[in-house]
Design brief:
Elements (H helix, E strand, L loop, with lengths): L1 E3 L4 E5 L9 H19 L5 E6 L2 H9 L1 H13 L2 E7 L23 H17 L6 E5 L11 H25 L3 E5 L10 H24 L3 H11 E6 H6 L4 H10 L3 E7 L1 E6 L2 H7 L11 E5 L4 E4 L2 H7 L6 E10 L10 E2 L6 H8 L5 E4 L16 H15 L5
Parallel strand pairs: 2-14, 3-4, 4-5, 5-6, 6-7, 7-8, 8-14
Antiparallel strand pairs: 1-2, 9-12, 9-13, 10-11, 10-12
């Protein structure tokens, strides 16, 4: 929904909270869940949608002009306007192990490029006039998968091809779409510093040169286009996991002229490191998603584990660790359970002041782990839970509802 006109600020929730890989599944979620959320949150206003369209659904929609037109009719009839797509998970995202497979195919592969361009075509057809569109995507790759510089250059070339396509799409349709790489723990892009370095050392060099070659333009013009169509999807859970300050990270990207394509409002689990906390974390060690763990000692030393089960096995051998942060998206309104807290308090008034000031026009609530939350912290009905998150965000934005 439009929460502010000047500068523009659109708010949505990410539909990756709802299971389904086919477009039929997505449409059911829109009809049964999203429409119900709209009734609670914005019954009289147009309601923004943050779609999650898997590869299967993208293929189905690309092959059927009728399905695309029917979708547009559905959006219009229900006063829903899609302005963002989560293009991070390519395949299955619920009802079975996902783990590191969520990063595949990565940006080394033509499959990732092709899928992303399909999403761009769909979004361009559905975007309202005058509204820009965002697509979030994997942070290049899972860090252990990248072993040499040729793979880095392959990613740079595919991202350049995506930019060139988005430039042409803008010229053809008038719809400006930007792609946001989403830094995440243990991925090729993980910290703010790593991401800024990748933009400066790779994207603003190799990718710019490739865009200039494809479009037959000057490199200075190509850099302008890369900066317009390629940026960062800023997930506040992921930033907090690095023990970074979200407001400072936002300002660091802004200083470097790197576009914030979308901000995903989310919170991680946070707790002290002791036997009571480890016991409280065990129900969160579920088999579907990768729950990276970051620890910090009183000295400031950092520790990391790829997944929560491994961390729980090894933490007794790390007595210096004082605090733990776990990549498990909990509802923004989660106020704690026993020794477990969240990182939502890193989203300070200064952070929300930056959002109202126009640092990014797209906000997306991104709590996707609803189906795997332990019973004793499960917030209940998903529609009511999403509506509560909207209320939390609106209050923080100073909107009063």
């Amino acid at each position: 929904m439009i929460v502010q006109h000047r500068p523009p600020l659109h708010l949505t929730y990410c539909l990756n909270i709802h299971p389904g890989e086919s477009w039929a599944d997505n449409l059911i979620a829109l009809r049964d869940k999203t429409v119900a959320v709209k009734r609670r949150v914005a019954p009289e206003a147009w309601f923004g949608a943050g779609l999650r369209i898997a590869h299967q659904a993208a293929e189905e929609l690309t092959a059927s002009a009728e399905a695309r037109a029917e979708a547009l009719d559905f959006f219009a009839a229900n006063q829903i306007y899609p302005f963002s797509i989560n293009g991070f998970p390519y395949g299955r995202f619920h009802a079975g192990p996902v783990k590191e497979n969520v990063y595949a195919p990565d940006w080394r592969s033509p499959e990732r490029l092709h899928y992303t361009l399909q999403l761009a075509d769909l979004l361009a057809a559905w975007l309202p006039e005058g509204v820009d569109g965002s697509i979030s995507t994997v942070p290049c790759s899972f860090k252990p998968w990248i072993t040499n510089q040729s793979e880095v250059l392959a990613m740079a070339e595919n991202l350049a091809a995506a930019v060139a396509y988005l430039v042409a799409l803008h010229e053809d349709t008038g719809r400006e779409i930007h792609l946001g790489l989403e830094p995440e723990p243990d991925c090729y892009l993980e910290t703010t510093a790593e991401t800024i370095a990748f933009f400066k050392d790779v994207l603003f060099t190799a990718s710019v040169a490739e865009v200039a070659r494809i479009l037959k333009i000057y490199r200075s013009d190509a850099e302008t286009l890369v900066r317009r169509h390629l940026g960062v999807c800023f997930d506040t859970c992921h930033v907090a996991l690095q023990y970074e300050d979200p407001t400072e990270s936002l300002r660091a990207y802004q200083f470097e002229g790197i576009r914030i394509s979308k901000i995903q409002l989310s919170a991680a689990l946070r707790t002290s490191s002791n036997p009571e906390s480890w016991a409280a974390l065990r129900p969160f060690a579920e088999p579907v998603y990768l729950h990276q763990v970051k620890g910090r000692a009183s000295s400031g030393a950092k520790f990391a584990w790829y997944d929560l089960p491994t961390a729980l096995e090894e933490l007794p051998n790390f007595p210096d660790v004082e605090e733990l942060r776990v990549h498990f998206h909990v509802p923004l309104f989660f106020t704690g359970a026993g020794p477990l807290q969240s990182t939502a308090d890193t989203l300070t008034p200064d952070f929300f002041h930056e959002l109202r000031g126009g640092i990014c026009s797209h906000l997306e609530i991104e709590t996707y782990t609803f189906d795997v939350l332990p019973a004793d912290v499960h917030p209940g009905d998903v529609v009511k839970s999403i509506a509560r998150e909207y209320s939390w965000v609106n209050e923080k934005l100073g909107l009063g509802h």
